[in-house]
Amino acid sequence: MTKQPAAGRAPARTRRPVGVQAEVRPLQSSAVTTRLADIALQAGGSEATVSRVLNGKPGVAATTRQSVLAALDVLGYERPVRLRQRSEGLVGLITPELENPIFPALAQVIGQALTRQGYTPVLATQTPGGSTEDELTEMLVDRGVAGIIYVSGLHADTTADMQRYDRLRAQGVPYVLVDGFSPKVQAPFISPDDRAAMTLAVTHLASLGHTRIGLALGPKRFVPVQRKIEGFVRAMQDQLGLGAEAVESELVQHSLYTLEGGQAAATALIERDCTAVVCASDMMALGAIRAARQRGLEVPKDISVVGFDDSPLIAFTDPPLTTIRKPVPAMGQAAVRTLLEEIGGTPAPHSEFVFMPELVVRGSTASAPGDRGDRGRP
Predict the structure, then answer these.
(1) pLDDT in tens, 141-159
(2) Which string of DSSP letters, residue by residue, matches 328-353?
């Protein structure tokens, strides 16, 4: 006996496969053309646009792509396999490295937040001589990730080609960018307030009597570096009345974001009679402490050192490091929340969400020495 639908209820519609160029032959058949026309009418677009979406072709705005997918659902068509894969719950996370402990800490926060929402994080890390950001992106897209979170990626490099992110968006892959900003990329950004961080560090050191404060950081082409310099210069003007040009030319030293880079930068700043060094990462700060000790100086008796990040275990160094705490939990959770809004079809504003850092005072900073002659400098 055939079961009849209940009164007033339409019979359940069986989802039908919709034509995709690689799966249906020929594409211009009347049945497939009719389906494309129906979908185009429902989505408010053209048949050509619908075809591009169904075949996974670039050049379609994310909102248009979502309209086409919604039209498929409304009309009862099955999504093509390559489009269904985006809903399987994989989210890519691309980091520049894992040697700096701040990146594993951020990855852990992001991974836990994704897992709580039912998604599976896929960590992809660049290594020297290994895969590039573009190659990792392609790998993740091929695996059908629902979205990607970039941490300290090429979006922070002012010399990089930002069109790579436009191409990714054209493929219908949502993404969020952490640590860096570019006005050329229409996407949500998550950043710490690097300028405010430098104000916190300089104000702390100036209150201890330091007047020769140096800044050790990475290459100038990166947005966070430029912002730290701006904040440092302004704070040195406000706190010590120094000229901007003199501060940037004499008290700012570029190097690498490594222990060795911090050591090299701090050595140069000590040579310029700095009694305190602010570093752009905790790893650089540990290098600065090594540089001081190699010159027979004690930290903080002879020279004070401030780090940046408040990486795990940094409170247990010798001496415990005074540092600027990056708001990692808040930033990681915001990145996940923003990406899931993008995936859900309600994109967050294409703007930058800036989080306030915090000064954590420990044992690597103290009052400035009376004069340079007492400091035991060789």
Answers:
(1) 988 899 999 999 999 999 9
(2) HHHHHHHHHHHHHHHHTT-PPPSSEE
